[in-house]
Amino acid sequence: MAFVSHSQRDPNGSYTFSSRPRPVETRSKYREPPSEQTHSNYGNIMYDRRVVRGNTYAQHIIPTVTQPDPAEIHRQQEVRRRAIARKRAREQFRPTTPKALQGRKHIDVQTELYLEELSDVIDATDIECQTDAFLDKPATPLFIPAKSGKDAETQIEEGELFDFDREVQPLLEVLVGKTIEQSLEEVMEEEELACLRAQQRAFEEMRNNELAEVLRLQEQERRRREEKARRIAQQREVLQKERETAEKIAARAYTQQYLADLLPAVFTSLRSHGYFYDPVAKDIETNFFPWLMAEVNNSLDKRYVARQLLDNIILDVAQKRLEEFKELETQPAKPDV
Asked: Which of 56, 58, 38, 57 is nearest to 48 (CA)?
């Protein structure tokens, strides 16, 4: 409903506001049924009018709602997740205060025009509100059309339409016949099951006997196979030992025949190559001769060094004498007095 506001001026020069009076809207006594547009959102907390919109800080509202739609919950979670991601991105790329220099630190100061007291305790106020309860609309009564036409009635005496004793005989015959037939079928089934069990027991006994016989034959065959393998292995071992013995005898004979001429030739070759030597001569060659040569070299080195030193001394003395002679020649002769 539209209304028009008017501004009037008082005699003293101030303005006052006044609006056109309007009647109070009538309210339905029962809950409005959901429309086609809101039918898909029925039971969703986002479309419930009893839930407060906007800032709900420090408010305790416990609405009575039905189970929300899973698709709507997923959409809300996705929107909330995107908002948190955007907030984190803004905080990450937001310019921050540079770090304090060494020996200093940052402190929080108020830059407002008026100072206020800061406290870690946040003042909170609990506010409650209760929405009006909606009454469920009672069920609509069934539509009963008005009568049309005329009513007529008649009187039926007892036994005119139905005689129980006569009508019940076919039912009893069927029931008794079916019961006897079912009993006979159950007896025959029990006898047939007993025969089947007897045949099954006889078959199981025969099968067990045959299985025992098969096991006995398998065990006998296994023992024969093992005995055959053992005899074959023993025969192979005997043949292997005989072959090894023959090879050893032949190798021994060949070795003796070969070594008969090999030993003299080997000793002769070793003696010619110097493997068999005189210990005294070997000691003189390996120990005495190297020591003697080292001593001779040391003596010659000493003599060479002494001669070198003597030559240097003689050379120095000759150079000094030559220099002195040159100085005497350059000096003028002194006159005789």
From this structure: 38
Residue 91: pLDDT over 70: yes
Residues in the chain: 337
Share of the chain above pLDDT 90, in %: 26
Cα torsion 196, 199, 205, 206 to 10°: value is -140
- Residue 44, pLDDT > 70, answer no
Q: Which residues, including other chains, have CB under 8 Å from residue 48's CB and lie 6 or more apart?
A: 63, 65
Cβ(126)–Cβ(23) below 8 Å = no
149: left (phi over 0), alpha (psi -120 to 50) or beta: left
**190, amino acid identity:** E
The tokens 């240097």 sit on which residue?
A: 312
Q: Is the pLDDT of residue 109 over 80?
A: no
156-162 LR contacts (CB < 8 Å, sep 24+): none
Which three-class secondary structure state does DSSP give residue 59? strand
User: Which of 40, 32, 33 shows the shortest CA–CA distance to 69?
Assistant: 40
CA-based R_g, the chain, Å: 68
Half-sphere exposure of 57 (CA within 13 A, CB side): 4
